[in-house]
Amino acid sequence: MPADSHHSETAAPSNRPVVCEFVVESYLSGKRIDTFVGRHLRNWSRFRIQRMVQAGCVRVNDATVTIDFRVRPNDVVWIRVVSPPDLSPVPQSIPVEVLYEDPWLIAVNKPPGQIAHPGGEFRGRTLINALQFHFDQNSPRPGMVRPGIVHRIDRQTSGVMICPKEHLTHRRLTQQFERREISKTYVAIVRGCPTEDAGLIELPIGTVPNPTCTLMCAKPMAVDARPAQTGFRVLERFDGYTFVEARPLTGRHHQIRIHFAELGFPLLADEFYSENGLIKDGTPLEIGKKDEPRSTDPFIEDPFYDPDLPLRRHALHAATIAFDHPIAGMPILLEAPLPVDFQQTLVALRDSANRPAAS
Predict the structure, then answer these.
(1) Beta-carbon contacts of residue 225 (< 8 Å; ≥ 6 apart)
(2) SS3 of residue 259 by DSSP
(3) Using one digit for the tens of pLDDT, what is the confidence trace for 317-356?
(4) Which of the ends of the chain has fewer CB neighbours closer than 10 A, N or C?
């Protein structure tokens, strides 16, 4: 393990504080001691950490330090954690399908319907709540490890997500995403049958030019449009549907859903994006059409799913992710199995394709 990423934790009996030891990473050189400790104890507020420093619970190179002490590379920081965490997400006992886990990160197969972290109307039962509970079961003290988010997939999209456990892993994974060094593949079921077996969709994506709508589009009138590229290949064809693999080369919001919809092949059961990139939720693309009756609105399609197929959310699954381990440096390829509703839908489509035609 490199010196700039070494840390250890020693579990004490339940009636005694936990003791942690960290070696200062080179990029944190010159940081004040409370700032450095806050990078490692991410569920503790600056106030709580400062109180522990002032109480003599933090030592550097075996010497007690004051709050204005600044760390240097390879300093050994020893912390007696006497204060409970005050920033910890609420741990909730929610099943977590772990694909890979080590001391620095975890990869999970996120189920459809779960968002990454609390926000808006979703205040609980998120992936963060589930991971905090999972980590607390294996930590000497609740809150010692805080799950991090470095990428997201839509609430109704299932599939692989990687989450860092500590700050250096978080930093390096974020840098890999920014440099586009992490490769992801998705699988989707789209309506219709693309003529090509493989291709590259290159359509800029921006927000819908309507302040009442937060959706995205690839139309020429899109606001703040940015380049977007999605490679694809056909995996299987059915009557009226196609099973495809998609590889986003950029990371725009709703990119795969919008790109296929714009080409005339929207995802099966997509609740928002319809053929030719039109919006299904009753919100017109442009301002000035808000008063049209819902029953005649050309952007509405009810129901948004096919009642003859099991899937009741958009047919998109994050199937694989490939990256270099941020600490060990080894290449990692992770694959998330298809969830049950996706598998059942493929079985139904295959059965329909093999069913003899009525005479």
Answers:
(1) 204, 205, 206, 218
(2) helix
(3) 999 999 999 999 999 999 999 999 999 999 999 998 777 6
(4) C
Residue 119, pLDDT score? 78
The tokens describing 66, both together, are 């004051």
Other CB atoms within 10 A of residue 68 CB = 9
Q: Which of the following CATH numbers is that of domain 3-81: 2.60.40.2550, 3.10.290.10, 3.10.105.10, 3.30.1130.10?
A: 3.10.290.10
From the candidates 4, 136, 154, 297, give the one annotated as an active-site residue.
154
Q: Interior CA angle at 236 toward 234 and 240, to 5°?
A: 95
Q: Collect the ranges in the chain with pLDDT lower than 50.
A: 1-15, 287-302, 359
Residue 154 is a catalytic residue = yes
The span from the CA of 101 to the CA of 139, in Å, is 14
State how far the Cα of 55 lies from the Cα of 344, in Å rounded to an integer. 59
Which amino acid is residue 14, in one-letter code? S
pLDDT at 1: 38
Superfamily of domain 89-179: Pseudouridine synthase (3.30.2350.10)
Q: Where are the domains of the chain?
A: 3-81, 89-179, 184-316
